Amino acid sequence: MEKLRKIIHVDMDAFFAQIEQRDNPEYKNKPLVVGGPLNRGVVSTASYEARKYGIHSGMPLSKAKRLCPEGIYIPVDMEKYLRESVKIKDIFYRFTPLVETLGSDEGFLDVTGCEKLFGRALAIARKIKGSIYESTNLTSSAGLGPNKFLAKLASNMGKPNGLTVLESTDKVLRKIKLLPASYIWGVGNVTNKELKSMGIETIGDLADTPVELIEARFGEPGRAMHDMSNGIDNRDVVPNRGIKSIGREITYRNDIDDLSILRSTLLLLLKKIARSMRYKGYRGKVITLKLRFSDFKMISRRMTLKEYTYGIFDMHSCAVSLLKAVDLNRKKIRLIGISVSGLKQTSEPDSLLSGDRSRDENLTEAINIISNKFGENKVTLAKIIEKDDVFD
Ligand code: TTP
Ligand code: MG
Fold first, then answer.
1. Residue 105 beta carbon below 6 angstroms from any ligand 1 atom
2. Which CATH number fits domain 171-229: 1.10.150.20, 1.10.510.10, 1.10.3720.10, 3.40.50.720?
3. Which of 45, 173, 174, 358 is buried most deeply by CB count within 10 Å?
4. Which ligand has its closest atom nearest to the C-alpha of 160?
5. For 358-372, what is each residue's pLDDT tens digit?
């Protein structure tokens, strides 16, 4: 049985493009494309006017330009968008601590039981939209449903500037079943192709296929997919504030004993961790290194930093000294992981955007911005490695 909940999903409309249209009135009502450096890279997002030409996120910019030569093409200004992102996420938290944010512009709120405090769930959704507009001058779309799947589907259906409710009634379910199976959470290109090869085109086709068949083909996620096709989704809203640690790990294809590769891996992992910390508004103090050897034995080592930070180099030099202290003794490493705990939420997320930052954090900031602009490119990493060597 599905738990009865009230879930709101909020997602900004054409987020990056809308911010640019707000700040540059000459872009208003025009096909605007925000993307990587001109003629390279891909479309980050397109204004709704540009979408009429078939332009969408992830499309090569060159193709977008062929589809709409008269469009306006501008680079990504991530710093600016993050400032808006922080404001939006703070608004979510005014209504409940049960907020799960995703990416820069969306979030789920579980408002079950909040109704007494803030009015009915639909009124809460309306208030959130209103507060976002008041604070940023940007429109968003909200969806309300008994679970995450239906809430997200609802917000998507009402775009732009929508407010949609999807209850799991027979009428709603009949409507949903006409939608393509790709609307199901987790059905990407590959899964969708496989579904098609099984003759499953719509959500209804999926619902009509015995769950055993789907599970045999897709494993455990198959069952969840099948449930969703019947409007059922038991996933909780998992709050991102109050988390204990942020970590990443990788398993090598071939076991490794080369210290320089291990150090570079740590750098790559920390770059991702730093970005995630920055995004979520955290600094951390405790670095934990985890190693799994080729014989599957596992060890972990931890160290506490002097200051709270999200700076890549401070965290990396700590991780490297943890690694060096391990007696590898010709053992090979199969998995390496690093995590940051002892997290502190910056009370003013905005303070992450200005002043008050260590030199290392400023550098990390620059790396994030460069990566956002140019992709995860090698030049940046080569620079980091060089810098690390200097520290050695
Ligand atoms: P989305 O919410 O997926 O898209 P959107 O807000 O632009 O448009 P929609 O009205 O359909 O929600 O993503 C939010 C932002 O994330 C988007 O403005 C740009 C960025 N983004 C990328 O940089 N690359 C991508 O592939 C996607 C999907 C988004
Ligand atoms: Mg959006």
1. yes
2. 1.10.150.20
3. 45
4. 1
5. 777 877 777 776 666
